[in-house]
Design a protein that fits this description.
2 domains; mainly alpha; about 160 residues; 7 helices; elongated
């Protein structure tokens, strides 16, 4: 089942893209701006301004500082892990079908996975999946289904062409 198992690893680029959207890049200038804006607008709701100024001074002088809380992401590592789990269950279902000596119910597995992925995306206010991620997951699932067919045919041929499909 090597080819299908590879799909579990091949999904990483999609998950890393989703993670990149919620992981702020190190950008000292942007942090200085965020500290200053927070100070002037009192966005932090009563946080000690002296503490805020201390962190700003550390940032300006290049010392280690606590990053400003500029925004709350729409989803977290938890949702990305849930997406990974759905994708893994999809591959596991395809693998299981091949191991049992028949074509796995790819359409049913894909429909179930898309249903779970859509619910997860809705839970994040439709921020988890942009059009690129949606297309990439669709392509990833389609390629996995094709690989499962090839896997099933190879198993059938190795059994001397015995009827299994």
């Amino acid at each position: 089942m090597g080819r299908l198992e590879e799909f579990k690893e091949n999904k990483q680029y999609i998950l890393e893209d989703a993670l990149g959207s919620i992981t702020p890049a190190d950008n000292r200038e942007a942090d200085i701006y965020s500290f200053m804006r927070s100070y002037l607008n009192d966005e932090l709701g009563g946080v000690d301004k002296a503490e805020l100024l201390e962190e700003l001074a550390k940032c300006i002088t290049g010392q280690p500082y606590d990053r400003p809380e500029a925004w709350e992401p729409f989803y977290s590592q938890k949702e990305i892990d849930e997406l990974a789990a759905v994708m893994d269950r999809f591959i596991d279902g395809l693998t299981e079908g091949c191991a049992e000596g028949h074509l796995p119910p790819a359409k049913a597995l894909a429909d179930k996975a898309w249903s779970e992925i859509s619910m997860l995306d809705e839970k994040t206010g439709n921020h988890l999946l942009d059009s690129w991620r949606r297309d990439e997951i669709y392509n990833w699932m389609s390629e996995a289904c094709e690989a499962s067919i090839q896997e099933a045919l190879e198993i059938k041929n190795s059994m001397g062409g015995m009827q299994m499909l």
